[in-house]
Amino acid sequence: MQTLRASKCGLSISLLPPSILDIIDSLTKAGYDAYIVGGGVRDLILGENPKDFDAVTNATPAQIKQVFGRRCRIIGRRFELAHVHSGREMIEVATFRAPPKKAVTSVTGMVLRDNNWGTIEQDFARRDFSINTLYYQPRKGVVLDFCDAYKDIKSKKLRLLGDAKQRFDEDPVRMLRTLRFAAKLNFNIDQAILDIWNVECAAQLREVSPHRLYDESQKMFSMGKLEKLLPMLIQFNIWKQVLADVKPEITPLIQRAAQNTDQRIAQGKSINSAFFYAVLLWQPYLERIEFYRSKGVIEAEARAQAGIDVLKRQATCTIIPRFAETFIREVWEMQIRLISPKPQHIVQLANHARFRAGFDFLLLREQSGDQSTQGMGQWWESFQELGNDQKEKAIADYRRQQQKNRRKVPDEQNEAFVPLVLETQVNTRAARRAKQKNEARAQKSNQQKTVANAVEQTSGVTSDHPILKRRRVQRDLSHVVFGPTQ
């Protein structure tokens, strides 16, 4: 172990937010050792702005709870730790780990329980990458380096502590973290990792909880290096482990969406990771729609059922939360409405809660060369920049264009292009109406017979009585005087 001066590493208290200093000071005041550890320290040394900071201490989760009270919440079964709120921010506080006395692992060696408390010397050995093992004590101005982590950061080397195969067996998610760090930090992966990485190694991700894989995919999609990461997912056999029915290829739509996402993050704009899932699953969604169309399912039901099927299939790899699934389906449904909007619904559609996401998706499709958008992505982009009067004129022009297009198509051609599903539906409705009419006639005939039988029984008048056979004579009213009589 070597002790480095924080100032030599480019670290300073002025670079830290008040929230992490509050956590460190509170634990130190209570008599515990506390350090800032992990990616926050690494990013500060690299000159980047960390998204968050993690703390580590020799206090157990129960003792951390005693220090912070209601501000603290204990989470996790496999890896128990504390979430402590400081102002509007949440800091993750972990306890020093030690090697388990009796390892609780799966058949393949994945660690199922890791709640053995230890010392700081034992804790660093339990971590995955060397670049995440720097322990920074801001008040003392020192950094504890146990494994030449500072040297690896400066040389941009991504190295696992200990045997690489064993570390992947303990937690297969480390494979995703390896690619994420390599793409985000532009680090070179250590040769010891490359030597053991194969298809069988990547297949261990199937043992990981789909919820945890979704959380890790969220980090990958939102780190701002998607364009560089996606080819690595294919190269290292990870693509098929996190995406159920998506072919391992980067289509023009996926490429364009990755560039757009990275650009938004670089500009400091927010993103929705569910949007990129909508892009990735778009092709399986279209294929599923075609499947239901071939079965004779009407268009609306085919789209709805296809969306359910694709997301349910994806849940076998990464379980997308319910609200995110709803968002994805709404974005897909907006496509047909934006491509063929009714003129009277255009203003209402532009104010829809999912209009912006649906429009962004449509524009990405159009920019990636999808001809089925019919140029409506550009139309909607121009429409949003118009004033109210200009929008009314644009809608009127759109209505006239629609009417003009209808007149161009002969009636015979229109009939020829009627979908077989709609024709079947019309025939079914006609048959149903004819059946209802026949049933109504039969019921009326039965009622008439019942009345006749009742009259015959009560009055003795049979069906062949002259009064029933009498024909109604049309009377001549030309000589009838209407009005008061004398």
Distance between the termini: 134 Å
Query: Can you tell me the CATH architecture of the domain at 9-155?
Result: 2-Layer Sandwich
CATH superfamily of the domain at 9-155: Beta Polymerase, domain 2
CATH topology of the domain at 9-155: Beta Polymerase, domain 2
Structural class: alpha+beta
Name of the CATH class of the domain at 9-155: Alpha Beta
Let me know the number of strands: 10
Largest sheet composition? 8 strands, mixed
Radius of gyration: 36 Å
* Average pLDDT taken over every residue: 84
Enumerate the strands of the largest sheet in spatial order, edge to edge or round the barrel: 1-8-7-2-3-6-5-4
* Helix count from the secondary structure assignment: 24
| Global geometry | elongated
Low-confidence stretches: 411-426
Per DSSP, what share of the residues sits in E-state strands of 2 or more residues?
A: 5-15%
Oligomer: single chain
Domain Poly A polymerase head: 34-159
GO molecular function, one term: poly(A) RNA polymerase activity
Protein name: Poly(A) polymerase I
Active site: 52, 54, 128
